[in-house]
Design brief:
The protein is of the alpha+beta class and about 110 residues long. About 30% of the residues lie in helices and about 30% in strands. It has a five-stranded mixed β-sheet with strand order 4-3-2-1-5. Strand 3 and strand 4 form a beta hairpin. The longest helix has 12 residues.
Length: about 110
């Protein structure tokens, strides 16, 4: 069975929305799939995709072939660093300025 990672179209007419799926390459575009690993909204600006890169890498290691679009989405997703609540340097600088929270504020 040849496995591919590709887009599955959903959404309304003139409002496309895609799910990134792992599927048998012989199945139709919107047919059955093995696993949903994320979503892609081409109409949205900025960060318009969200998916599990680890699962994509797992399937690629097992021999799955990503489509051209999915390959570019994986590449973009790898460039974007994961969002962190606050860096360590920012936390230290806020504490030095007296911006630390009291015990009553942290309890709520």
């Amino acid at each position: 069975m040849a496995v591919s990672i590709r887009l599955r179209r959903e959404g309304a007419k003139n409002r496309p929305y895609y799910r990134i799926v792992v599927t048998d390459s012989r199945s139709p575009r919107d047919g059955k799939f093995i696993e949903i690993i994320g979503t892609y909204d081409p109409k949205q600006t900025g960060q318009n995709s969200s998916f599990n890169v680890e699962r994509a890498e797992y399937w690629i290691s097992k021999g799955a072939k990503p489509s051209d679009t999915v390959r570019s989405l994986i590449k973009k997703q790898k460039k974007v660093p994961p969002a962190e609540p606050a860096s360590k340097a920012e936390q230290e600088s806020s504490e030095a300025e007296g911006g630390s929270l009291s015990s009553a504020e942290t309890a709520s």
